[in-house]
Design a protein that fits this description.
Number of strands: 2
Organism: [Candida] railenensis
Radius of gyration: 23 Å
Number of helices: 21
Protein name: Citrate synthase
Keywords: Transferase
Strand order of the largest sheet: 1-2
Helix content: 55-70%
Order of helices and strands: HHHEEHHHHHHHHHHHHHHHHHH
GO molecular function: acyltransferase activity, acyl groups converted into alkyl on transfer
Pfam families: Citrate_synt
Structural class: mainly alpha
Largest sheet: 2 strands, antiparallel
């Protein structure tokens, strides 16, 4: 079967190359770029390999390694003040520069994938070809469909998502090539094929889970003429709503990448460094994303908003909101959706979603609540004094947009986040293998050993 699959993929690639022969494919561009990047990294290590780039405090070792410089992540860098930059571009930049669907206004996530992998903005023709390739690779193996269909409805959608992605290991060209002893210099090629195959299948997996758990179990077919976000919306059952299509394009783009230190990105990278396939690596990252301190936070924000709405009896005056916020804080709880490990200003992803809401749903009740909280919460949190960043992050807004268009099942929201996060972590996996990045293996000490270490340092 593996030989048949390889032949089918080869035919697919040749067909897309013939269809858009005037411009190079994504894989061709990466193959052209990699040698120069490899040499750049080689020279960097040779000339500056012994340069001290930071220091580690004991409190960082016990505080989740917060702020320690120790990872290489090409796709994005998170600045505490200005927020995320994708290959040097802000969110407004990519909204302006990346190709869009005909008549659309939001960037296409497949164009962002191209940018994150190569550092280049693809043309409309290249983006269209890539969209068609993803659609052509989207079908799931029968055993994965059956696995999803057999999952009990009470099993959290994220658990089902992780199980299905893990089961796709059966399709791994990287695992097959590694078993045959392929040259290390070619690892990236098989990692690339696995990553594109995986990315292509995620909408079918996510939508199958959604339709099974929350709807009638019936699933539309992928339309080869549609872009990635439009196909995802259509599979979920919201394809007739053009605004929802635009939301999916925006959502997938802005949730994709947030540098390499967050749990889902770091976990995917870490597992990949052991030469696990992209399927196993992403599944590990999805398990991290499922946690309430990471991707599941958007679900918790919405539950908190519903509780606030009920207790305020829909009276969203600033006085009532301020009182509710103080009650939350004085009870020893946090205000969900506010604060961020790195950011020290309003998350640009929040701003992008707010602008979308102002354009498409300015009178929506939940949006008005979120807007009023935005005007009150920073002042309350600043006065409270225990939050380093009193401004909202992406989680405080995304669920409200989905609620407006009828996708009200908040336990599914992290699955959408997972589909989006694949657009950020898979390009880095490909680059990791292309650049020959090493197995990640930091040093650990026991508390007893740390006591000995810091006492010796203090003596000196």
């Amino acid at each position: 079967m593996s030989a048949i699959r390889t032949a089918q993929r080869s035919l697919l690639t040749k067909r897309f190359v013939r269809s858009y022969a005037t411009e190079p494919t994504l894989k061709a561009r990466l193959e052209a770029i990699l040698p120069e990047k490899i040499e750049e990294v080689k020279q960097l290590k040779k000339e500056y390999g012994k340069t001290v780039i930071g220091e580690v405090l004991l409190e960082q070792a016990y505080g989740g390694m917060r702020g320690i410089k120790g990872l290489v992540w090409e796709g994005s860098v998170l600045d505490p003040i200005e927020g995320i930059r994708f290959r040097g571009r802000t969110i407004p930049d990519i909204q302006k520069e990346l190709p869009k669907a005909p008549g659309g206004q939001e960037p296409l996530p497949e164009a962002l994938f191209w940018l994150l992998l190569t550092g280049e903005v693809p043309s409309e023709a290249q983006t269209k070809a890539f969209s068609e390739e993803l659609a052509a690779r989207s079908a799931l193996p029968k055993h994965v469909e059956e696995l999803i269909d057999r999952s009990p409805s009470h099993l959290h959608p994220m658990a089902q998502f992780s199980i299905a992605v893990t089961a796709l290991e059966s399709e791994s060209q990287f695992a097959e090539a590694y078993a045959k002893g392929v040259n290390k210099k070619d690892y990236w090629k098989y990692t690339y094929e696995d990553s594109i195959e995986l990315l292509a299948k995620l909408p079918n997996i996510a939508a199958r889970i959604y339709r099974n758990v929350f709807k009638d179990g019936k699933l539309a077919a992928v339309d080869p003429k549609l872009d990635y976000g439009a196909n995802l919306a259509n599979l979920l059952g919201y394809g007739e709503n053009q605004e929802f299509l635009e939301l999916m394009r925006l959502y997938l783009t802005i949730h994709s990448d947030h540098e390499g230190g967050n749990v889902s990105a770091h976990t995917t990278h870490l597992v990949g460094s052991a030469l696990s396939s992209p399927f196993l690596s992403l599944a590990a990252g999805l398990n991290g994303l499922a946690g309430p301190l990471h991707g599941r936070a958007n679900q918790e924000v919405l539950e908190w908003l519903f509780q606030m709405r009920e207790e305020l009896n829909e009276d969203y005056s600033k006085e009532n909101i301020e009182k509710y916020l103080w009650e939350t804080l004085n009870a020893g709880r946090v205000v969900p959706g506010y604060g961020h490990a790195v950011l020290r200003k309003t998350d640009p992803r929040y701003t992008a979603q707010r602008e979308f809401a102002l354009k498409h749903m300015p009178d929506y009740e939940l949006f008005k609540l979120v807007s009023n909280i935005y005007e009150v919460a920073p002042g309350v949190l600043t006065k409270h004094g225990k939050t380093k960043n009193p401004w909202p992050n992406v989680d405080s807004h995304s669920g409200v947009l989905l609620q407006y268009y009828g996708l009200t099942e908040q336990s599914f929201y992290t699955v959408l986040f997972g589909v989006s996060r694949a657009f950020g972590v898979l390009p880095q996996l490909i680059l990791d293998r292309g650049l020959g990045m090493a197995l990640e293996r930091p040093k650990s000490f026991s508390t007893e050993k740390y006591i000995e270490l810091v006492k010796n340092i203090a003596k000196k």
